[in-house]
Design a protein that fits this description.
homodimer; 330 residues; alpha/beta; Rossmann fold; 2 domains; 7-stranded parallel β-sheet; 13 helices; 12% strand
């Protein structure tokens, strides 16, 4: 089977066996593990416990940027270059779809199909589902599966609109921000926010008018920020993903960031922050599960709030008491 | 003082007196109450408890759309028309700013200044702060203040990118979706998601080429959806906010939606869902406060996770035990 076709939505009956097969390189089993994590199946926790000690050696690369900057094309080209270096690469593409329609903003995975028959490339789309908490808990779980299964590079690609670029940074060792010249004022206005989370900045479509001006401007913005001695200063590269221009320099810059931050200790502290975010998300998820389990109570309280009989704060305290948290809280 | 200048960030020393003044129409006190709710000050809960029984009579109107469709101009024009009907209007504009920079996507409130000397118009910007939970808890609190203070219409304006359009729907009785012809493919692709949350759809800039085609297409999409007999079917209106064309029809459509859903019971069930979301957010906030209070423990656990000594699931259970939730959970 081709890796990109791996959906793996079927139930896991024997987690131990599926894990063993996934670790041996079986794509279908790897896909099943990710599905189990993504769907928060009963097996998810056992899988996480089993794989956690095996993870930690992959380089997690986040790729983000506004719609239309060429994220898929660039990711695909980078995958090709990493493959030439003999590295095994997994891509998790996060779909910021409408929670109602299952949306399509990132749906076009077509350009990635060139890698679909490569056994050492794993491509997977994950739905954002409109649940930030859900995504925050599922993404590190999916990364862990791929990391433990021996992929050298795990790419998390997400569209850089709103909250998502912040999420990606929490899960990546190195964040690549993609830009393109002439993307319109509103998107350019958002540049500052994207710049602050970027470890490597690339201006794609560097053959277009305005590309070198955009690079100059970005470099000026970056050099204006104070950086502690020895700390990483994000390079700004010009690339053209469709014809391959500047891509090997981009691959080098991404690798350099990893090496430099590993040496300075920044990588370790970023990973600790990532682990803290994950543990916190898992705890929050357990809490939300408790609220879901008390949805009838919540409904009853909400009706009393709309009726003017109860204020929402008292209602929240009552709910927390129901869940078992409140007793010690007040 | 002008209402739009009301920032009210100063501390509330006497919540009872501030509430009393706010209820008498004092802008500065109203602004202070909103700040207290937004900043989750100690007074927030007392304010909420005091105001909850007084709220419920305002018409909460959500306005959303992609950047550049003319949300501010349209909102400003609608405010003018509501004022002509003798209605008192409050606008809460939610800034989807970068959590890092305090961003500027919606910064341009300049067009609203025409109402800044009108005592019966209240305008307030709220920062999204990159915290969805925070926004979910703060927005209904701000709405409640304005509702209880006697504003007839409370507008919640937010940019319709990503998660925000979903948030706005939870807090509004009527959701107005603004579109514009020729906004580019990616944004158009997102139309379906926006359509599903819209109670009234308006195509702004209706003098531009493609406007009537856009309206036709939207009407076709909406009439293709099955609607139960007696249920509201969103009208698609053409407007031109800058020259006022179609705006009185838009005001009428927004009022009709309120009347129709109040009669059918849909308004009540939407408000109950909103109250449930608020109660749930407040409970979640209390839980997250517990996690924050245990941040040292979380840090320690995270370090053990990155060290490969502990898996994140076990770490989450340990954290929950620390918080006092776990005992009854397992």
């Amino acid at each position: 089977m081709t890796s990109s076709a791996a959906s793996g939505s079927s139930r896991i009956t024997d987690p131990e066996e599926t894990v063993a097969r996934a670790l041996q390189g079986d794509r279908r089993s790897q896909a099943r593990l990710i599905s189990a994590v993504e769907e928060r199946s009963e097996a998810a926790e056992a899988i996480g416990r089993r794989l956690a000690p095996l993870a930690g050696s992959a380089h997690i690369v986040g790729i983000t940027g506004a719609p239309g900057v060429g994220k898929s094309t660039t990711t695909s080209a980078l995958v090709g270059l990493w493959r030439k270096q003999g590295l095994r690469v997994a891509v998790v593409a996060i779909d910021p779809s409408s929670p109602f329609t299952g949306g399509a903003l990132l749906g076009d995975r077509v350009r990635m199909t060139e890698h679909s028959t490569d056994r050492d490339v794993f491509i997977r789309s994950m739905a954002a589902r409109g649940q930030l908490g859900g995504l925050s808990a599922a993404t590190p779980g999916a990364i862990r599966v791929l990391d433990a299964c021996g992929f050298d590079v795990v790419v998390v690609e997400t569209v850089g609109v709103g909250q998502n670029e912040v999420d990606v940074v929490r899960f990546a060792d190195t964040v690549l921000i993609l830009m393109a010249p002439g993307m319109g004022d509103r998107i350019q206005a958002n540049k500052a926010g994207l710049l602050e989370i970027g470890d490597v900045i690339a201006v794609n479509k560097s053959d277009r008018p305005g590309a070198s001006a955009a690079r100059r401007e970005l470099r000026a913005m970056i050099s204006a920020k104070p950086v502690a001695p020895g700390d990483w200063r994000p390079p700004v590269l010009g690339i053209s993903a469709t014809d391959g221009k500047g891509l090997s320099e981009l691959v080098d810059a991404i690798a350099e960031h990893y090496t430099a931050t590993a040496a300075s200790g920044q990588l370790a502290s970023r990973r600790a922050a990532r682990a803290a975010a994950e543990v916190s998300s898992l705890a929050e998820e357990a809490f939300m599960g408790r609220i879901d389990a008390n949805s009838e109570k919540l409904k009853e309280l909400a009706t009393r709030v709309t009726g003017g009989e109860l204020d929402p704060y008292t209602a929240a305290h009552t709910l927390l008491t129901e869940i078992g948290l409140e007793r010690e809280m007040r």
